Description:
Chains A, B: This is Helix-turn-helix domain-containing protein. Chain A has two domains: 8-71, lambda repressor-like DNA-binding domains (434 Repressor (Amino-terminal Domain), Orthogonal Bundle); 79-184, Jelly Rolls (Sandwich), CATH 2.60.120.10. Helices cover 23% and strands 31% of the residues of chain A.
Amino acid sequence: MTQSTADPKKIISASLQRERLKKGYSLGKLAKVAGVSKSTLSQLEAGVGNPSIETLWSLSTALEIPFSVLLEQQKPIVQVLRKGEGTAVNSGQADYKAILLANCPASARRDLYLTLVQPDEIHHSQPHSKGTIEHVIIAQGRALVGLEEEPIELNPGDYICYPGDQAHVFRALEKNTMAVFVTEH
Amino acid sequence: MTQSTADPKKIISASLQRERLKKGYSLGKLAKVAGVSKSTLSQLEAGVGNPSIETLWSLSTALEIPFSVLLEQQKPIVQVLRKGEGTAVNSGQADYKAILLANCPASARRDLYLTLVQPDEIHHSQPHSKGTIEHVIIAQGRALVGLEEEPIELNPGDYICYPGDQAHVFRALEKNTMAVFVTEH
DNA sequence: AACAACTGTTCGTCAAATAAAACATTCGTT
DNA sequence: AACGAATGTTTTATTTGACGAACAGTTGTT
């Protein structure tokens, strides 16, 4: 299935209100900035009606978020995959022996980073914007990674993902610890 | 700017027709499968009108593509980033010294894999579905990666991305070569 | 050539989404 | 407590998107 069969109305209803409150806008304020009427917005958040693209587009630009954010539902939790764990995937006609770490929800945005960290640098991160998820794969060295309250020790090939909207840490345990970093929002 | 200021009508007009032809559907066929009238679809592809979410949703499911694909314009090319290259990013309140390898276009889907490959295994891949892009970051060892016609030697920390809809190779040059694999579609 | 089956476009009609204003409700201030 | 300014919801009118049918244009089959 290419996308969830969920009702788009309900998704929009939820995400619209979620993003509006995240931005600290009132319903009337957002309506004014976006150039749509309060009544329209009110009904959209109530889950009734079938908005046009232009209406949603105006709202998404007013909220300063990519359009597609309004069309996706929430994501959760924390997960670790040790090297060698995970389900192997026969990737179609390709013959790679690959482990699927995380398949991508429709229309999530994943930015890729490469980091090189030293043991004396402890990296605390304040929570990012709500709904973000971070993926980390250790390439070299060892590191203590995850939520601040409960970081997990990772070795090369280990994988972890955790919500980025909570306080989290990255602490290298060896020199030149290298990690691939994927932020999902 | 969070998203291009382009007119959503034109984007939809283009992407709708692009995806329809890619799937080999006629206008009437798609309309029938999606459960929308030919006239509506005709006008949408003509760039007139302001479709409702439900209409677009029906079309996207009929085309078996994520909704957001209809809201974005085209992507290209090949790229290599050696370890140490690339623009450092001050990632907001976080203090990671991170290199941005590839920022994610709105609503692309990126699946994450971890691979361990031996020198005697040469991995040729037939082209995947059109429009896919593959990202590879070498964690350990060395490898010859990229398009079949012109693979590139990569060392730990090196990054490459290339279109996945063309024939490509992954050939490990050392034992236990480890790579992070990201397929984007 | 005539016919049938398809291509996509352009008409009226109807239902529905949008907007503006009137409507409640809560909040903060004097 | 009383007022003004917010909040978000519910009205009434108007606009407009979606449908179905009739339309013109191509392709291919007998």
